[in-house]
Amino acid sequence: MRYRNWARELPLHVMIIPALFILILFAYVPMTGVVIAFQKFYPALGISGSKWVGWDNFEFMFKLPNTIQVLWNTVIIAVMKIIVGIVLPLIVSILLNEVNHKLTRSGIQTLIYLPHFLSWVVLAGILIDILSMKGIVNQFLQFAFGVDPIFFLGDNNWFRFVVVVSDAWKEFGFSTIVYLAAIVGIDPALYESAKADGANRWKQTWHVTIPGMMPIIVLLTTLSMGNILNAGFDQIFNLYSPVVYETGDIIDTLVYRTGLVEMSFGVSTAVGLLKSVVSLILISLSYWCAYRFANYRIF
Amino acid sequence: MNAHAGQLEKVATVVIYVFLIGLAVSCVLPLIHVLAISLSSASAADAGMVTFWPIDFTFQSYQYVIGKQQFLDSMFISVKRIVLGVTLSMLLTLLAAYPLSKEKNSFRFRTLYVWVFVFTILFHGGLIPWYMTIRSVGMLDSIWALVIPGAVPVFNVVLLLNFFRNLPREIEEAAFVDGANHWVILFKLFLPLSAPALATLTLFSIVGHWNAWFDGLILMNNPTNYPLTSYLQTVVIGRELSQLSPQDAILMSSISDKTSKSAQIFAACLPVLLIYPFLQRYFIKGIVLGSVKG
Lengths: 299, 294
Fold this sequence. Notes:
A: MetI-like fold; two-stranded antiparallel sheet; 14 helices; about 75% helix; B: about 290 residues; mainly alpha
């Protein structure tokens, strides 16, 4: 019996080995590499040859004048993105549900899903052009409202706003998919009885559609907790410049610059480790809450 | 009263349509603007006269881009990366998702394996340890650095294993009775049954590889090894101007920086736009499957 179990399960082990090998090499080995955070690391000496410095890198990190600002920027940008990223698609999907003309509806859907599939490199290239002083956005603002040109990407008053709005613009359409699926799942009988009770469209939305979407809203909100330190490296790296570090520099861009530009490997790894540990706690917590309160399991 | 309410609903409908259509148009206007600039003359583009329609229509900037060796080379690297990367990652995803979709009593190590996989979503070593690992296995400047480290997209594995778990159990049991082994069941039964899910994941994987830029930027020391999006990053975003050859300089006099950048941006979007119709047909199904049946 024991032998038959093994014989039957052997192919399953064989199937999983290649993927397991790659994960061990490129996910678990780097996890052990976090010891670099406690070393004065030189690539030529390697992990075994570099000097152990204890918590020095962490102390150094918190002595840097802008570290706290960077943490703050990260959380602010991420939280604003999370809020807009939940509310805007919710509104759009409810409105989209009111569009009965089929062709118009699918046309709208086709267009709003598109930006999700374009890379931030491409979108940043476009944004840098249209948001420049002579760009089409400033031309329009000047023409329509007589506003003086605004340097959107070089002004600390505007940078976070641009980041949050452009991220919302890129992702809102794609995010409606999950909400639309939830709307489709609402029992049509509920609408029938609401109509029979004399509810107009607004009341149907308020008393049937939104309560019907509540579980998915709760779930998405809970899961988004894991993203509080993810302000969006791809986007910010391609849009920012030293003039807006004050409001736009985030943990991931700081890790990149200290590590791969300034070659302070120990400090960079320390900052990254701090983020990874906090993220681990946040993501675990969010999954646990989602499991506990929304009965959600990832597998 | 009733007539008034009916009128109000009509107005609301019109407002909703206008708002949504406006929003939808805003999603493509920036692309149209870039396309218009890329097809305009340098002087019109530099003067900021172009909005959504080309002025002094010309293909000059595209001729310049197509004649640009580095653009073509990096595009070739991107294609190579997609062929290798998508094939490998789809194969590994398929092979890993099948055993992980088994019940605990038919595969006793399932829970352990699933946790080994999922933990990689929860915790990362960070940028520097990751970079040092790839460096130490000697992959820097090789196409494999863009293909192998990311060859097991755990999220896709989870999506596919959830899909497998929703297939009727009886099919598998009947096949076992007929003497089929796990390999036959995976490749002859599960593979065809999960074609829509696999198509979705494949298309996502293609777009993902095409759009990836950061790994190329840091893992390739030599810019001639950049895939297209990394190359584009250095041209369009990177602040320093790339070195120009004398022929380039002559060409540049008639093609402004702006039109050539726009042409390159649009050329980089084009493959995504081309597979988008196929993508759209599948992804709604795929995502809904993964997120609702979790």
